[in-house]
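Encode chain A's predicted structure.
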Amino acid sequence: IRDRARGQQHRLDALAVGVARARRVPRVAEVAFLAVAAVILTGRAGDPQSVLWLLPLAALAVPRWRLVLVWGAVEAVLWYLTLWGRLPGGKGAPDWLLAVGGVVRVGVIVALVVVVLRSMLVRPDPVRRTPPPRDPVSDAHDGADPAWGVAR
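Encoded structure for chain A:
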């Protein structure tokens, strides 16, 4: 139990460093996406259902949809390959194909994480371009303290 708690603490530390180095107050969806992606990428379970937690967060956190659509296609193909192995009378998908699909899945999720981190650390936020510059999920403005909602 202690090792498991230590691993979770390392994930939280990395997330806290990423949020603290951001040029602007990160949106709630971005932080939530990074937290769930860290759990999925470093967790023990590789359930296909676990990535469903990322879908609404990716819709809110990733400003451009092309990579999200690629991720959806990868997940659909991987789901089909997994289902193919369970069909009665079918030989099933070869193990190497499932392994390649799993590596591609991890690669696409890491690419999504990089896009969100780059959006937080480098680029201006495309969601907050229109006045007033606010997070659509929370009530905190860019000049406000996220914990209290009080202007600095």
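The radius of gyration is 18 Å.
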